[in-house]
Write a structure and sequence with these properties.
The structure holds 2 protein chains of 2 kinds. Chain A is an alpha+beta fold. Chain A is built from 3 helices and 5 strands, in the order H-E-E-E-H-E-E-H. Chain A has a 5-stranded mixed sheet with strand order 1-2-3-4-5, covered by helices on one side. The model of chain A has no long low-confidence stretch (mean pLDDT 80). Chain B is elongated. The mean pLDDT of chain B is 77. Chain B is mainly alpha-helical. Chain B has 2 domains: 51 residues, no CATH class; 68 residues, no CATH class. In chain B, strands 1-2 form a two-stranded antiparallel ribbon. The chains are: A alpha+beta, B mainly alpha. At the A-B interface, strand 1, strand 2, strand 3, helix 2 and strand 4 of A face strand 2, helix 1, helix 2, helix 3 and helix 4 of B.
Amino acid sequence: MIFPFIVLFSIFFVVLVWFFYPRSGVYAKEKYVGIDFPIPVHGKIDQIVWSGFRLQVQDLKTRKINKVYDSDVWQLSFYRYILSRVQKRPVVYSGVVLVKVGKNVFSHVVKLKNDKEVESFFFQFKNIFLGDSAKKAPIYICRGCGHFQKNCGGGV
Amino acid sequence: MKKSNNRFAVTEIVKMSRCETLVQLDYKYGKYLTNYANQRRLEGIKEHADFEKEPVDGRCFVATSIFGFYADETKFLRQYRDDVLLSNIFGRFLVQIYYSISPWLIKIFPYFLLKIIRFIVVFLLPFLGYKKQ
């Protein structure tokens, strides 16, 4: 007697879930995420897109030229790293950098770094931040920061 | 150095990929910003605020879901809708029907079916005059 009701209710439930299951679209905007373990990092993701089965991180950059830098890839990789631990949904190993030049927006799909690379980058940062690697010669030297010609040895 | 609950900010960490010395000096002497950098930073904050407020286009449902909001294909299809379809009565009628049923289609269609539609649309786009850049 109860069996048909259970079947009907199950069908109704499945249809309901199927109908309201989020399809592709913008999942969240300007979302704050952060974790303490294995690495203590936090940040604000500009846009998260749900592609149907997986999440993808996107970042907006305002520039004068349409170019994607290495730091953008690292930033998205960190966001992917955090999001994969905060969300239960899978996060795809690619991200989109939206470069806004004037009124035009250009989208660049970039391949993201894996978890091990992200962790090693963070520990490298922490070593430098704590001064452990201060004696080592820097690999990258910029020419346009505020420390230039004051304390920075670069660009001499 | 921005820290919240002993967490490091990602934007500060990724500076290291540009200049490792900058990270050390920021920590040692505090953060220095040139006038130009500060101006660009303020512009970026304004752009981000606009981006957050920017309404997600509720229309062009199928194209947006299969290509993405900022994709060239979606832009082309929007342009085609405005220039070609909306310029005659039959086209306007088609657009009205499309907008009335496409939100439902997106909810009902499974993911693999959208992939098939994407394949068909990509095949048809050159016939409408789309050239991939």
